[in-house]
Amino acid sequence: MTDAAPFQLPPPPDDRQTADGWQRWRETRHELHQLPRYSRAEYDALPEDRQILYDLSREIVNSNLPLQETPMSQQVTRVMRARLNKGAMKRGPSTRRGLIINGGGCQGKTETACEVAAACEDYWRQLTPQGNPDAVPGTRDLHIPVLYVQTPVTAKPKSICKTILDFYGADHKTLDLPGLIRAVRRHVFAHGTRAILLDDITRLRLHRIDDQDVFDLIKGFMDMGATLVLIGVDVLGSGLLQGAVLDPRTGDYIIPTIRGRAASQGAETQHQRRFTLVQMGPFPYDADQEKAAFRAHLKGIEDHVQLLDATEGMLTRGPMADYLYERTAGVVGLLECLIEDGIEAAIEAGADGGREELSIDLLDQIPIDVSGQPGRLAAAGEIPTPPPLKPAKPRGRNTVFDDRGPAGKTAAA
Q1: Which of 108, 157, 179, 286 is the most exposed place for a label (fewest CB within 10 A)?
Q2: pLDDT confidence of 369, banded at 50, 70, 90?
Q3: Which residues are bridge partners to 278 per DSSP?
Q4: Which of 312, 351, 305 is nearest to 51 (CA)?
Q5: Which residue did the predictor score with more confidence, 322 or 382?
Q6: Cβ-contact 323, 363 below 8 angstroms
Q7: What is d(CA 81, CA 120) in angstroms, rounded to the nearest whole number?
Q8: DSSP per position, 81-122
Q9: What pTM does this model have?
Q10: Buried-exposed string 81-108: b where 16+ CB fall within 10 A, e elsewhere
């Protein structure tokens, strides 16, 4: 390997729940190592050291397939982009209308929301390249337009405030609850934060007094000059919208404020809270147009898969699209798991002398396993149950050499 450049593993994933990690992810989220597509013959003609480096490089590409838009994510993108930009342009102290993104586990809610927020931040930074336009004179307040955190598993008013302050890298060890709330408000304003994304909000089931206090506190964030985006699984069944009134004119849910609890202290809970609920579900697959949308999604994935024996239409022609939908029920996260595991199995098959491609026979041997995903809580419905893998049909037994006995011989004659 004397002529080859040294191989470097990709850096570890960025922690988007910190300001520095979010910025690194935002700035590099579209970077993907591009590789030439080699046929089997072209690959075999490469020197051994080049083959090794190519295999390592395409393993990175196959492990980082880019996010594909879907009709469901496009709808969320339109609503969220409009809501964030409109909220960012408001100058008055009025309460910003919030957004709730609802859907099942592994539907792509988090990645879609983060992508929209990052794109809006790109736009805002182009408008104000000098940084935070509201920075305090004589200081160098860091401009942090977007805040993204996950709801703690056992959330309490103090823990959610500390999670937000940890994003900013702020010290909070000696603060009591009123002090934590004031610190959150101070940092949101000082850093010019325009959007607050709170993921896994349905970990709050409102059956505990702490959960009710946390949700009341969260609604208070809407008066801090930032648009609040809540992301969760089965929001309608979680109780978060309990008592909400649907405004038929705007489609907003008007949520009453819970008063009299510790988290309700302060002026931030004096106004009505209005949320728009948008849904992200699996691909529908009944009409021809819906089937065409699913095939287009598969084509987008296929264009980035690096396999030596891959053919045009590997994921879309014949019965493959119908098979993939049946295996995944149209859930994009399950589809991603199946494709990634299928790619690994295909490369192993190619190393053993088989064809390096995705086929129904190959995928039939791969169960979809999404258990144990980092940061996901199965009890909160964040990990879906994949459709069961159908058992292979048993092959008929060859009966040519069976002894049929005297009766069978007479009948055959």
Answers
A1: 286
A2: confident
A3: 101
A4: 351
A5: 322
A6: yes
A7: 7
A8: HHHHHHHHH--SSPPPPEEEEEE-TTSSHHHHHHHHHHHHHH
A9: 0.82
A10: eebbeebbeeeeeebbbbbbbbbbbbbb
The tokens for 389 are: 């893998």
Residue 278 amino acid letter: V
Angstrom distances, CA of residue 345 to CA of 140, 162, 338, 349, 357: 52, 43, 10, 6, 9
> Can you tell me which residue has the tokens 């295909």?
346
Cβ 411 vs Cβ 232: under 8 Å? no
Element (H, E) at 253: strand 252-255
Spatial separation of the C-alpha atoms in residues 120 and 401, rounded to whole Å: 73
Tokens of 303: 């264009």
Number of neighbours of residue 71 by Cβ within 10 angstroms:
14
What letter would DSSP give residue 203? G
User: What is the C-alpha separation between 170 and 255, in angstroms, rounded?
Assistant: 31
At the second CATH level, the architecture of 71-280 is 3-Layer(aba) Sandwich (3.40)
Q: Tokens 């942090």: give the residue.
A: 144
What gap in Å lies between CA 34 and CA 11, rounded to an integer? 17
Half-sphere exposure in the Cβ direction for 244 (13 Å, CA): 21
| Gyration radius of the chain over CA positions | 27
Which pair of tokens denotes residue 380?
A: 């909160």
DSSP helix, strand, coil percent of the chain (3-state; round to 5)? 45, 10, 45
* For the chain, domain boundaries: 1-64, 71-280, 283-375+384-389
Spatial distance between the Cα atoms of 298 and 200, rounded to a whole number of angstroms: 28
For tokens 């060890």, the residue is: 173
pLDDT per position as a tens digit, 93-139: 778 889 999 998 889 999 999 999 999 999 999 887 666 656 555 55
Name the DSSP letter for residue 274: E
